[in-house]
Write a structure and sequence with these properties.
single chain; about 400 residues; alpha/beta; TIM Barrel; 8-stranded parallel sheet; 3-stranded antiparallel sheet; 13 helices; about 35% helix; about 10% strand; binds NADP nicotinamide-adenine-dinucleotide phosphate; oxidoreductase; NADP_OxRdtase_dom; oxidoreductase activity; NAD(P)_OxRdtase_dom_sf
Length: about 400
């Protein structure tokens, strides 16, 4: 895939001083700290100025659109409230980190209305304002379809609850409400990429596609995309849009990594054929592909839940063998396992920009450092040889 590399002409930012601001940024301390931290508006003032730092960042078109996105998309699911997910980092650190991500040339940010029940969007919006991020430079993606409760409970889908019955899914009513709520939380005039988090089997595809088209026509959204769903349904939705002259999906956000490759059967060939961008979520398998099993972080409990819920295989050893292979290649090459897992994802011609969850500055630098890592044919074969096909992940609410 053709890409462009960003070579900033000058660097006046003091990276070492930036690093000093993150000395306690190991995950367990963040979690402990975040429990007691009360955000303040002046929190980012002490932070280093918004001057670009040298970066290997590359840019590609989002599928067949003219929109240029960085080859790494910054996933914002981990920015929010530890009551929603225990490994979430809170506002102050999250805003600082978003600034560092931006300075290193990542222009593509993915959030969702349901992440920390709106807090992730609020934090991203605050970062854009407080750090004076150029709106023309960044590409903001968010999603709708899951419920956003008023408290920090995990997103339910209680179809018969009078409080929620119209507050999730892909109906015209809910999508119109949801886009306005996201814009308000993000404090933006428009969203670059608005995605359907899941398709709602209760709602006719025509209704959803027409509603999305009308939202684009209203100017609130520039492009539309979708997340995990059966390939036939995604293709049908785009056919409905095409037949009616409505806006089509230009991007698919699906689960794709070395321990979940079911998308290679149908979705990836369709996207490649149709010129739809693929922006995989959890390319590092929520961290599982980045470390030995015995290593514990604040996220390993969540990563295990992800694995069991979405990437379950018949026998645990199937995934273990893949993790071992990643670690072996990383050791041999003298790079991190995360770099190997990301390089594998990026080696696929249909992958546009994997959405990585960055909650630590050392992870950010590690990923960017690994951007030019090219795996050999033999290494790719070794990484793939132990994959055991498994049931696809559940696509329903
Ligand atoms: N559409 C959907 O349904 C859906 C679902 C889930 C996620 N997403 C999107 O995908 C994004 C990424 O998801 P994810 O966080 O599960 O993805 P991921 O990139 O697969 O996992 C990130 C985790 O990997 C670990 N890690 C270890 N070394 C790393 C390194 N060098 N760089 C980065 N991470 C490293 C970190 O955990 P430790 O701290 O434990 O080391 C980190 O939390 C989300 O923020 C969201 O935007 C979408």
């Amino acid at each position: 895939m053709a890409h462009h590399t960003y070579c900033p002409f000058a660097c006046t930012a003091d990276i070492s001083s930036t690093e000093q601001l993150f000395p306690i940024c190991n995950s367990s301390l963040i979690s402990i700290f975040s429990l007691f931290f009360v955000p303040s508006n002046s929190s980012t003032k002490q932070f280093s100025s918004m001057v670009d730092v040298p970066t290997k960042m590359q840019y590609v078109n989002l599928g067949s659109t003219g929109l240029k996105v960085s080859r790494i998309c910054a996933g914002c699911m981990g920015y929010g409230d530890p009551r929603w997910t225990e490994w979430a980092i809170q506002e102050k650190y999250a805003i600082e980190l978003i600034g560092e991500i931006y300075k290193r040339g990542i222009n593509f940010f993915d959030t969702a209305n349901c992440y920390s029940n709106g807090q992730s969007e609020i934090i991203l919006g605050k970062a854009i304002k407080q750090l004076n991020m150029s709106r023309g430079r960044i590409v903001i993606a968010t999603k709708a379809a899951l419920a956003v409760p008023d408290d920090m409970s995990f997103n339910p889908a209680p179809r018969d609850d009078p409080n929620f019955v119209n507050r999730f899914g892909t109906s015209r009513k809910h999508l119109f409400d949801a886009v306005d709520a996201s814009l308000k939380r993000l404090d933006l005039d428009y969203i670059d990429l608005y995605q359907i988090h899941r398709f709602d089997d209760d709602i006719p595809l025509e209704e959803t596609m027409r509603a999305l088209h009308d939202i684009v026509q209203s100017g609130k959204v520039r492009y539309i995309g979708a997340s995990s769903m059966p390939a036939w349904k995604f293709q049908k939705a785009n056919q409905i849009a095409e037949k009616n002259g409505w806006t089509k999906f230009v991007a698919m956000q699906n689960l794709y990594n070395l321990i979940y490759r079911e998308e290679e059967h149908e979705m990836m060939p369709y996207c490649m054929d149709a010129g739809v961008a693929v922006i995989p979520w959890s390319p590092l398998a929520a961290g599982t592909l980045t470390r030995k099993r015995e290593v514990k972080t604040s996220r390993t409990g969540n990563a295990k839940w992800f694995e069991e819920t979405f990437m379950k295989t018949r026998e645990q050893k199937d995934n273990d063998m893949i993790v071992d292979e990643v670690l072996a290649i990383a050791e041999k090459r003298g790079v991190s396992a995360a770099q190997v897992a990301l390089a594998w994802n990026l080696s696929k011609p249909y992958v546009t920009a994997p959405i990585v969850g960055i909650t630590k500055i050392k992870h950010l630098d590690d990923l960017i450092e690994g951007l030019d890592l090219e795996l050999t044919k033999e290494e790719i074969e070794a990484l793939e040889k132990n994959y055991a096909p498994r049931e696809g992940m559940p696509f329903t609410f």
